[in-house]
Design goal:
The structure holds two protein chains of two kinds. Chain A is mainly β. Chain A has no helices and eleven strands. In chain A, a hairpin with a 7-residue loop joins β9 and β10. Chain A is globular, with a radius of gyration of 13 Å. By secondary structure, chain B is an all-beta fold. Chain B is 0% helix and 50% strand. In chain B, β9 and β10 form a beta hairpin. The chains are: A mainly beta, B mainly beta. The interface between A and B is medium-sized, with 25 and 25 residues.
């Protein structure tokens, strides 16, 4: 079983729809949970991070972590064409030297 | 401007011809790392460095070398490139190794024929 699973299937949604992305993981030691956004021909950039379980909201973006189910989610409300990108989940253990990444989800928001 | 730079951005080479991809950061970060990104496989860590003269293997180190002689630079060396090293390479840095925010460079698209 891979450490982080993210279904890489592309997702196309109409403008204004809610985008829902998720990842599952197997390592119960993960404490930090991140979402990176990667535009075409660019490097990934940090979008949101959460520590342990719970929700975090930042504008139109909400990140959720359920450690009991080893499941994290990212929701994008009122999606815009500018949200079209690949979204990668990432996780780490405090004090560890690496991030474990999911494969990424390509999201296309259609005007 | 705080940034991670990589050079070259695009490179086409032939099997066996040694090459170096440079990476530099201007944020005084201790931690630097190299990843490769392949369709269907996502981002995989090649090597990382906790500080000057301290490097360690990531998940896919075979066929690569690194060095960290200065804090700001972390070059990736392919001494004898092969076609299976054709990939998109990213350098990243962060304040410390456990930091959740890594700053990525713009990427280097490498093709080995």
């Amino acid at each position: 079983q891979k450490e982080v699973e993210q279904d890489p299937g592309p997702l196309s949604v109409p403008e204004g729809a809610i985008v829902s992305l998720n990842c599952t993981y197997s390592n119960s030691a993960f404490q930090y949970f991140m979402w990176y956004r990667q535009y075409s021909r660019k490097g990934p950039e940090l979008l949101m991070y959460t520590y342990s379980s719970g929700n975090k909201e930042d504008g139109r973006f909400t990140a959720q972590v359920d450690k009991s189910s080893k499941y994290i989610s990212l929701f994008i409300r009122d999606s815009q064409p500018s949200d079209s990108a690949t979204y990668l989940c990432a996780m780490s253990v405090r004090g560890n030297n690496r991030l474990a990444f999911g494969k990424g989800n390509q999201v296309v928001v259609i005007p | 401007e705080a940034q991670v730079t990589q050079n070259p951005r695009y490179l086409i080479t032939v099997t066996g011809k040694k090459l170096t991809v440079t990476c530099s950061q201007n944020m005084n970060h201790e931690y630097m790392s190299w990843y490769r990104q392949d369709p269907g496989l996502g981002l995989r860590q090649i090597y990382y460095s906790m500080n000057v003269e301290v490097t360690d293997k990531g998940d896919v180190p075979e066929g690569y070398k690194v060095s960290r002689k200065e804090k700001r630079n972390f070059p990736l060396i392919l001494e004898s490139p092969s076609p299976n090293q054709t990939s998109l390479y990213f350098c990243a840095s962060s304040v410390t190794g456990g930091d959740w925010e890594q700053y990525f460079g713009p990427g280097t698209r490498l093709t080995v024929t």
